[in-house]
Each structure stands twice: as C-alpha cells, then as structure tokens.
Amino acid sequence: MTEKFIAPFDRELIANTHPGDWTNPTSRERYNLVVVGGGTAGLVCAAGAAGLGARVALIEKHRLGGDCLNYGCVPSKALLRCARAAEETRQAEVFGVRGTGSVEVDFPAVMQRMRRLRAGLSGHDSAARFRDLGVDVFLGAGRFTGPATVEVGGQTLRFTRAAIATGTRPASLDLPGLDSATCLTNETIFDLTELPRRLVVVGGGPIGCELSQAFRRLGSEVHLVNRSDRLLGKDEPEAAALLRDRLEREGVRLHLGARALGVERLEGQTYFLIAGEGEPVRLPADAILVAVGRQANVEGLGLEQVGVEYDGSGVKVNDFLQTTNRRIYAAGDICSPFKFTHAADAMARLVLRNALFFDRVFVGRGRMSRLVIPWCTYTDPEIAHVGLTARQAAEQGLAIQTFRHELKEVDRAVLDGETEGMALVHVRKGSDRIVGATLVAAHAGEMIGEVVLAMTKKIGLSAFAATIHSYPTQAEVLRKLGDAYQRSRLTPRVAAFFRTILRWSR
Concatenated DSSP letters for 197-254? Predict the structure, then answer.
C-alpha cells in the first residue's frame, strides 16, 4: 500500500505524541514530581499532579500515550469492531436478513479506519495538551543520575518525588529461523496494509486470542499455537473452554500443548514448526504474530545508581507503590501483574496520593492491595473477570460457594441470539461476600463493573436480588445470581418455619 494511503493519519498521530519540532522546556529549579514514561500511568500522574498545583515534569522516550494508544487497546479494539461487523454480516440470515453470507473485507480500508480513529484520539495524550495543563514535557530518554535527579536531553531535572511509568514491551521468542520470517508483535501488526493469507499466532493469552479471532473473521487462515493445553490460563477453565469451542467453530485451528521448534523455508514458502508425534508439523505462515507475554522496560534508566531494585518482572514496589528508594514510586505495567490500562490509571492515582500528600496533609495512604481490578478479553463472546478464581480460592484455603447461571436462560440473550455464555460468582462460604466473578457474554466488559462496585464497597451478592434491572437486559443475569443466593438460604428448616407461619395466618 502506498505511503500516500496511510501517511496522513500516522503523521497526525506522531505530531501529537512525539512532534518532530518539539523543543524541550528549560528545567525548573526543582519539581514536586518527575514522571518517567508517558503511557497511561505516567499521563495520569502528570495531569493529576499538575491539576493539584504541583510543579511537574513528564519525560517520554518514544510516543506519548504508550502502548494503549499506539499499539494496544485503541488500535486493537478498532480492528476487532471491523471483524465483528464482518461476522455479523455473515450471520445476518439468522435474523431474516437476506443477501448476506458471502462477505468481502476491504482490509486496507479496515486499517485506514483504525489509523483515523487512533489519530483522532491521540490529541487527548498530546504533548501540546499536557504543556497547556502546566506540565513540562521533555521528549527524550530519561536516566536517574543521583538521589533526586534525572537527566534528559542534556538537562538535569531535580525532584522531590519521582514516578517510574515506563511500561513493558512484547516479550521475544528465541526460535531457529524466526528472524527469516515476517514476524509481528502487537507493536507492528497494526502497521499492516495487506491481510496475511496465512497467519500463525504464538500465544494463547488475551492478545493471541483476540487477534486470532479477528484475523480469521477478516479472512486469514489462522493457526493458534500455545504451549499450555488451554487458552487464557489466568481465567476460569470453563470460560476458556467456551472460547475454545467458539474459535474452533469459526475456523481458527488450535494447537494447544504444542512445543514450538522454529521456522523454516521450503520451496519458497515459510513454515512454522511444532513438535508432532514423529516428524515436525509444518504450519504455513505468511506472517507470525508473537504474543507470549511482556517484558519490563527497565534498561537505561540508571536504577542501580539510585537504589531502585528490579527483576525480570519489573520494578519492585511495596503496597504503597514505593520503590526501594523512598523518593521514587512506580505505577503501571512496570511494577504490576495487572497489565491493563485501567489498572495503570488506578495505580497512578495512588502514587499521587502517597507521593504528594502523605505526611504533608491529613490524607491516608492508598494501598495497592485494596484495589479491586477487573480484566476483560475482548473476544466474541467477551470474557470478564474480577477477584479470585475457584483454583486461587482453593490455593488460599478459602472455602467458597459458587453460583452459576447460563445466558441461554436470560431472555435478552435469547432475543439477541447471544446465548453462548454464562455468569458465575464465588462467595465466601456461609456469607454473601463476593470474592470473585467471571462473565462470558457479548458485552461482559460492560457488565462486570456492577460486580466490581459491589466488591469495592463490600456489597454482598444478596443485594443483586434487590436491585431492579431494566427488562430485558443481559445484565439481568446478575439479579438471577442474587436470587440463586437467596434461595440457597431457604434451608428445609427455614422452609418448614415459613409454612407453619403461613398455615397459622390462613
């Protein structure tokens, strides 16, 4: 595809997130907060601190907006929406809409739409906007040089507190021959302008599952290779099983429990090799998407010089998001197992509270362990989760009672033709206190918030039975779970007591 086709929106994106004509400001005498990293966590830290009247500097090496805007949430969800539209068109005859079934996908137009929307949203994360908010924006590589100093672009910035928010990048895969293939990650797959005819996806986590389904719906032949014998290892097994069935029905070829061997070229064709019973199994691959995890961006920050400890998972922090250097905090993917935009946002707010105000005004310290963080995999159906899984509860020795309801028993799901899914909630045995929940539904990501609120405010499952939901909605499944809990309290003894009372009142 020509540069003329794709360049305008990319130019707008870069002009906002890393403008080539940007001139770094002159450093102030001292900053209340210096933020290293301009992804979600860093932007929230910087904007929030400036809004509270602090003197703030923000340092970004690449593009402002980080992974979410440039390579993650924004472009992927734009792509997924187009893929869903294609699949809905194929299935339209189910709803009595004729003349569909055969769908022609204009992949360049799909990617152009994504770039247009991404560029349009980038103004919110732009260098100019943050400058106008009162933040000193420095574009360049930041490095800690002393107990209270950071160097960037030849200037030394002095700080009272600092926050590390440098995020993560795609983990690499060391396989023979991989460098000879068209190898993609989430940072490069959205640069495509032509649809790969045959795509091999390595990794069965959220990124691998979402993009496998999307590219299959857009017309690629897709093979998903995963070392584990199941998808979505952090989610409930039955939710992962529902997704597995859906992907297989849509034509994604799953290779679970498979050991990757490498890549070879044979008669002008690229093959991804996995172990077979005898000879290796050769999967034809015009492109290979590697989605095998994340790697922390800690290199070149000078962390050793300022006593900030880190390991392969990232920067080490305590429950207050404080590093081993008490002046320096961290937020987001660089220090959290919850590598989600909304988690980074929540952690940044804790950093503001703890770094700027604790010990200065009467503000209690915020703890990471008190955050109730959901996540959602945006496949179709979506899989949303919060709290403990059944396995985690068992590992912690926590006795639970589980309530489950299938979407095929929810009227709106039946009417929408979206009955493939379920909701389950784990409560502490002997009470209605929610300790975990999983929703599998077309819009599970929208529905899980009600459960998150209940857990955050310590509202029990019984409250869902007393909450009136609009009819018909798929969120009614939560009320039905509340009803199920209430029925579980109707023991034979209680039922006998009620019958006696009613008999007396005749």
Answer: SEEEEE--SHHHHHHHHHHHHHT-EEEEEESSSSS-TTS-HHHHHHHHHHHHHHT-EE
